[in-house]
Amino acid sequence: MHTVPEISVIMSVYNGEDYLEEAVESVMAQTFSAWELIIINDCSTDKTPEILQRLAEKDARIKVHTNETNLRLPTSLNKAISFAQGKYVARMDADDICLPNRLEAQFAFMEQHPEVALSSCRFMTLKNGVIASGGCGGKCDNASIRALLLVTNPILHPGIIAKTEVMRELGYDTTLTCTEDLELWTRFAMHGHKMEIQPQYLMLYRLHDKQITETTKERQRREVVGIQKKYYGKFLSCMEESQEDFYINGIYFRDNKDIRLFCDFCRYMKAENKKTKAFDQQALSYALFEILAEYKRRGIKKAELVKAMLQFDIAFLLKELPERKKRAREDGQRCIEAAKSIGLAPCGGTPEFPVFQSSADRSE
Prior knowledge:
Blueprint: E1 7-13, H1 20-28, E2 35-41, H2 48-58, E3 62-66, H3 72-83, E4 88-91, E5 97-98, H4 102-112, E6 116-127, E7 130-133, H5 142-148, E8 161-163, H6 164-170, H7 180-190, E9 194-206, H8 214-235, H9 241-252, H10 259-276, H11 281-297, H12 302-309, H13 314-341, E10 346-349, E11 354-357
Parallel strand pairs: 1-2, 1-4, 2-3, 6-9
Antiparallel strand pairs: 4-8, 5-9, 6-7, 6-8, 7-11, 10-11
Helix pairs in contact: 1-2, 5-11, 7-8, 10-11, 10-12
């Protein structure tokens, strides 16, 4: 008997023969059964069509649509959303892997938090056969995410689940080529929609050596600046041209660890937020502190670190430093438990950032 699915998983694929079958089978293996998987084949020229046909014959919940011309990712995802029957839309890429309880856990989270329009999840990375934590210690609440969007993209795109009606209303910006997710999250925030990150580890996110080429990175830089000028313009003040270079190289990508410019940027953001009160002040401090934490990981000198720390209230530091360590330990334990559930054991790293031995069928 036909039943309307609760979750519409959407995927676009172009020449994804290497990992497509494993990705789709991870959806088929979900403990939650009320799903449909809408796959847009964006004019693939490899064995993708044959793989999709074979998988669709196995499970009627898999629905394949083939584009007549190559439409690229944002347009294809909008097309998939237009077909969605579920209450929620969940994203999935053709090279990632869902843990078996992903949809069950995400559906329960959204049902328990009806005020949330979109949520993502924690994830483990998979690169060259090595599986590792995708990060521990970050905050997951809406106020922190809104502030983090000023300086980074904190939301894993293929790990999201969102209300279908909101995804349909806002849609992806089809003029973008590699930042359509960041742009959509900023519009969620600008429209007042709440976003959270579920603390459970529910995905294996595959990384590739050449995932971002220099050409793509330059295009990404231009697109990010355009997106953030709108986001800053909405909530703080429109970013000046003189700020753009340090923003993209020192704040967003964090290659330029110029502490003088970092301190200037902190003062600018705090002064503007004092006027607009658009962001919770603690959340804004947290977002800026995340940049500094990354600088430290990349080897900033101790004297420079101390200078930058003066931008933060002592009360904030006394509270945030121990809380961050506690969150990292808790996240690390969740990551280990999730890995154990799929037969992986820690083989390195630290309790906060564990590394796991990959099973043979997931080596690359």
